[in-house]
Amino acid sequence: MKSEKSKNTQEKIFNAALKVFSEKGFSGATTSEISKEAGVAEGTIFRYYKTKKDILRGVMLEYVERFEEFANLESLKKIIRENKDKSIEEILKIILLDRYKVFEKNYNIMKVIHYEMQFHEDIKSMYIEKIREKEYQMSNYIFKQIKINKEEYKNIDYKLISRIFRGMMFGVFFQRRSEMEKDNIIPIEKEIDVMIDVFFNGIKKK
Amino acid sequence: MKSEKSKNTQEKIFNAALKVFSEKGFSGATTSEISKEAGVAEGTIFRYYKTKKDILRGVMLEYVERFEEFANLESLKKIIRENKDKSIEEILKIILLDRYKVFEKNYNIMKVIHYEMQFHEDIKSMYIEKIREKEYQMSNYIFKQIKINKEEYKNIDYKLISRIFRGMMFGVFFQRRSEMEKDNIIPIEKEIDVMIDVFFNGIKKK
Amino acid sequence: MKSEKSKNTQEKIFNAALKVFSEKGFSGATTSEISKEAGVAEGTIFRYYKTKKDILRGVMLEYVERFEEFANLESLKKIIRENKDKSIEEILKIILLDRYKVFEKNYNIMKVIHYEMQFHEDIKSMYIEKIREKEYQMSNYIFKQIKINKEEYKNIDYKLISRIFRGMMFGVFFQRRSEMEKDNIIPIEKEIDVMIDVFFNGIKKK
Amino acid sequence: MKSEKSKNTQEKIFNAALKVFSEKGFSGATTSEISKEAGVAEGTIFRYYKTKKDILRGVMLEYVERFEEFANLESLKKIIRENKDKSIEEILKIILLDRYKVFEKNYNIMKVIHYEMQFHEDIKSMYIEKIREKEYQMSNYIFKQIKINKEEYKNIDYKLISRIFRGMMFGVFFQRRSEMEKDNIIPIEKEIDVMIDVFFNGIKKK
DNA sequence: GATGAATGAGATTTCATTCAT
DNA sequence: GATGAATGAAATCTCATTCAT
After folding, report:
1. Phi, psi at residue C120, to the nearest 5°?
2. CATH number of the domain at C56-203, please?
3. Which part of chain C has CATH 1.10.10.60?
4. Please, where in chain A does CATH 1.10.357 lie?
5. Which of A47, C163, D3, D135 lies 20 to 30 angstroms, CA to CA, from B119?
6. Where in chain C is the domain with CATH 1.10.357?
7. Cβ B63 vs Cβ B134: under 8 Å
8. Do B176 and A176 meet the contact criterion of CB atoms below 8 Å apart?
9. HTH tetR-type domain location, by residue (chains A, B, C, D) (predicted)?
10. Is domain B53-203 in CATH 3.30.460, yes or no?
11. Residue whose Cα is closest to the C1' of E20
């Protein structure tokens, strides 16, 4: 029976930890800094998380939860169904823009997990099972649809196409974030537009 | 006057540090583990590097050195000149395959620097100046060439095309490495082939 | 909001550090020994002092504080005022005896600071500003009074007389302390008596 | 059979050690810095001194040697004999000026020994036996002479007078050295003049 | 529940000393 | 004799975790 207040405290700790992890990395973060950032005593952290590592597990669980909310096959199918009148390109542009916004909003949590999973087997296997596999399912689903449409599109292994698309998408997204210090960056809408246009033009028969 | 012996010791420490950094991250690595891995006393490390952070700087310097060796505008131009009879697609396939091999060989050092630059301003600014800018120059150079060839290619801002291409390339490369536990992974040659074909088909006029 | 308990811990550490510093010198002292002497864990020291050097700074601050308490121009003037009926010699005997008692009580802290200021510029400049200058002001004040009394005293530069007096006083004080292993040492009262008598007889006109 | 070269090396090490000890203290000095200052390899030090502590013992021995050269009862008596026509004040002024010059020349070595003897019993007992006792003997000798001259001088315990005189002398000498940063310091000749005049006037009968 | 002082294991770093060349 | 690379014990310092209040 979590009280309002204690829920609030846990949240403060979680947010503080996420901030500090994303700025210093898990190992570089100290519970002392997290407690200061959260505005609680250092000991309080350990009433909510048994160990520092446990906070990281909490971050992972939150990541999975958020991911499942915004990225799942059902909602993808729903979007496609609801936009039957639009071309697949148009639909994907909508999806990617949405994904980029989610990406931006959840950048810190993603960054932390992507970095730390290298060093923590439990985080890694959970990531593969709960995130990566879902990600692959979704992109595979899209390009399987296209493969069916044999007349218009080239006959390329849909899994390979799916791989390249995913690589391109995340490559472009991460590249944008790594250029945050630049001021004349191109708008994301324009970049997605061109990315999708080139890619789909590329996989079409002439 | 570095003796053979001492050069050897420094190398052992460097390699050990690189290995441990890539397995545990900079903060998660301990000088004790590095010394064991290198087969030297812990104190010996500090004859070669003033501080642990200094080892990371050494890794960065080595990265820059290696990068400048294999990735510079001159050698890129040379490859293009030497392959004048081949199509731009063919040339890029050669370049990308080469880059992937370099990427694989230098994966650890790249991974370490890409991750750690988030947490160390000095590493980050050096990375931007010495690596990223050069990378951008090179890909921009390639797509500027194509732009000139107006008849065949669509009229898209070459910098934007260059961005998307780089994103795709690194996205695909990193995706491969993050899937190392998979056994049925597609050969890199095939993946590059399709990637280039789709991308160049995509930017051509119909 | 320092609790009683933590104030007590800091004091234990301070006293232990002072003892060990005075027995081994700053560089020769180890935080391990200080912690044992203080009866706390070694790590506890660093909750109260950021670095070992910081403990020395703490010692310096304490020295200044104690010095300002017992040695300031106002209280000197007060003593003189209150003893108007006594001769200057009698007054100075009272002052010197008091100073010697303070000297004995604060011998360790004085010794540590006097020695260490040679090696630490920050300690030295603080010493000069906060201690030596005040010391000079006070002795100068006394001998300026005497100078005014032209009839009785020789016409010697009061600053020079003041210098020699200070030198004699501290020389005698330190000589006593450096002979602690001797058992037949003359009582301080007698030594001060003779010192003052000789000195004032010496500066008087015949 | 010390060769010229090796004698030279030992001397270089000795001088370097003395310099570094006087700047950093014995514990604060490192053999690495001494070797750099001496212009020899670190290992070379240990061919001439078994341990770092041994260098300090060497410094002590050198101090004793120098002291015995310039300060011994025989030469004191000789000076007095040779200046029979001069007053005791005049003779002491000559002696003190000479002692101050020796003091200045040997300041570093004195400073090091005076500081370190607190922390090293062997150094301390050697100091007491070889230096302090001789020092006391000499000043006692002088004031015993004066005591004999009962008519002119007050009847004060010659040992006490001797103590105060020594305290004054070293107090004044050290005070001068501790004011090295000042530029308008009074000449030593003048200070000695006044010091002796005041002191001897002070111990005379009216 | 919350606090924050205290802990102590372990991390980084220093440095006198050794020894192969 | 001289060198300086290597050592490892010990020093300084950090920090996750505990626990009395």
Report:
1. -130, 110
2. 1.10.357
3. 1-49
4. 53-203
5. A47
6. 56-203
7. no
8. no
9. 7-67
10. no
11. B5
CATH class of D1-49: mainly alpha
pLDDT in tens, chain D (206 residues): 455 666 689 999 999 999 999 999 999 999 999 999 999 999 999 999 999 999 999 999 999 999 998 888 888 888 888 888 888 888 999 999 999 999 999 999 999 999 999 999 999 999 999 999 999 999 998 888 876 666 777 777 888 889 999 999 999 999 999 888 888 788 999 999 999 988 877 766 66
CA–C1' C47–E7 (A) = 11
- Asked if residue A198 lies in contact with residue B198, where contact means CB atoms within 8 angstroms, the answer is no
User: B73 and B184 in contact (C-beta within 8 Å)?
Assistant: no
**Which residue in A41, A37, A17, A39 sits closest to A28, CA to CA?**
A17
CB–CB of A167 and B175 under 8 A? Answer: yes
Q: Residue A184: phi, psi to the nearest 5? A: -100, 35
- Amino acid identity, residue B24? K
Structure token digits, residue B24: 């545990």
- Out of C128, C175, C200, name the one closest to residue D167 (CB): C175
pLDDT, averaged across chain B: 89
Report residues 46-85 of C contacting strand E, contact meaning Cβ closer than 7 Å: 47
Comparing CA positions, the residue from B187, B135, B185 lying closest to residue B165 is: B135
Residues 4-23, chain C: which have Cβ under 7 A from strand E?
Answer: 5-6, 8-9
